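Appendix B. Chain record.
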Amino acid sequence: MIHPTALIDPRAQLDQTVEVGPWCTIGPHVTLGAGCVLKSHVVLKGHTDIGQSNTFFPFTVIGEVPQDLKYRGEPTRLVIGDRNTFRENVTINIGTAQGGGVTQIGSDCLLMGCVHVGHDSQLGNHCIVANNAALAGHVVLGDYVTLGGVTGVGQFTRIGAHAYIGGHSAVEKDVPPFSIAFGSRPCVLKGTNIVGLRRRGFSNDTIMRINEAIKLWGRPDVPKEQCLLEMESECLEVQGLIAFIRQSESGVVR
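Structure tokens predicted for this chain:
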């Protein structure tokens, strides 16, 4: 169903099951998969590929040009997976040529009201980003990340899978997977996301091992390399934690 007030470029590719509400605008390079719903006043622009069963609430602006002064109109992209919900006033920008050319949103994510996702950012699956949070360019969120409201994430920052960031935080360093962190300048490690891990079916033994590793990492009196060496014989999840820390280019919160 397409409302008569919607403005849809004839070159856009919409599955026949897409619902487009009043006063929506869809540009020529947009692809919309089956079951997508545009409530009203939704703007879809740019080279934007959208999967199935995504819901866009009023005044979302998806696929606009990057807020980057270096952008010169390159045909960069935005790719969105399936079953995501974008609440009111969410804005997501396409990528930049310097940043890889693609902004990407996984599947089964919830972006609440007034969330911004900057150019070249990469969101995994099952992420929850609460109201008024803002991701700068080149941010990476792993699967099952929860980001509290009114939180800012600086550019080139990574937040590992299953991490929980408390509201009103300012994240300027990488946040390790499985952890809880919050605070503003600095954002600091507060422990393990035990509740989240239990909800997702991690065994008690695995949670215990992750918790011990994160407690060790959070000790300011233990040097970084010593922490990592003491973790090395642990389970696969802790091995992933070690790899995340070793790959960091901007430092990791402790």
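Further analysis of this model is presented in Appendix C.
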